[in-house]
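Single-chain item
Fold in C-alpha cell form
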Amino acid sequence: MLPTDEPPFDPIFVDEPLLIPNYKETIISKVGLPFYADVDRPDEAPADERERTIDLAERILRAGGVRTGFGHHEEVRTSMESWAPDAGEDRDADPGYWRSSVLLMSPQEMNFGQLDGEPEQKHKKAKTVLAWAADCIDSDVLQEIERSQAEDIKQAWRDAAEAELTQSKIEQFAEEPPEELDGWQRFDAGHDAVEVAYVADNHGTPSVAAVFEAADGDLEAHEFTLEAWDENDGNPREARLNRYCVTTDGDGAYARLRSHLLTFEVEPIERLEV
C-alpha cells in the first residue's frame, strides 16, 4: 500500500472528504501492525468509487421511514417515477436518461435497497438514486447517511486489522509458546502426544490446558483437572476431559489454547507442584 495525498472517495452530500488520505494505513498502524502490513480488504469496505457509490445508494434506499420522509416503499417508487421525467434538464442530449434509469429498477430493488445487475448497470442505478435523493431528501439526512457509511468503512478496516494482528499473535504463540501467559505456567508434560501444556489454578481447581495429538492424528486443545492428568500419567488421550478450549479468533488448536489461557482468571501454580 503506497502512501497517497488524495482522499479515497470524493464527498457527495457532505462538504469535505470523510476519509483522510492513507486512512487504511493509519488504522492499521493504530491497531498495532506496521502501516505497510498486508491486510486483506474486508467485504464491507468498497474497493473503489463505483462500489462506494452503489453502497451509498443502497443505504439511502434502505433508510426509509421518518429519516427520509418516505413512510412506505411505495412512496419511494412513486417519488422516483414522478421525479424522473423532469430531472434530465441538464442532459439535453439524452432527456430520457433519468427516466430510463428509474425504469431499470425493480420494485424489489427500491423496497429492499439491493441493486441488481452487472457492476456498470448497478452503478448507473446508484447514480440515479443519488440524483433523486439530492432533490427529494433533506440534505441533513443524506449527510448523516454518508457519514455513517464512512464510519462503517473505517470500522470494517479496524476489525480486519485487529483480526490480522490476532492471527499473527496466534502464529507466534504456536511457533514459540511463552513460558507464562496470564498466570498459566508452561511445563514439560513428558508425553509424546503433548505439543505444549500449561498449568494453573482455575477458580480453585488445579488444571492443565494442552495442545496434543489425538488418536486420529488431529491436534486438539482441551483442559483437564490436574488430578485427572496425573492419574493418567499425563496422557491426554486417556485423561477425562474437563472442558474444551474454544475461540472465536482464528482457527486451529493453538488458537483455541491461546484464547483459553487468556479467558480465565487463574492463579499460578509453581512447576514443582506439578
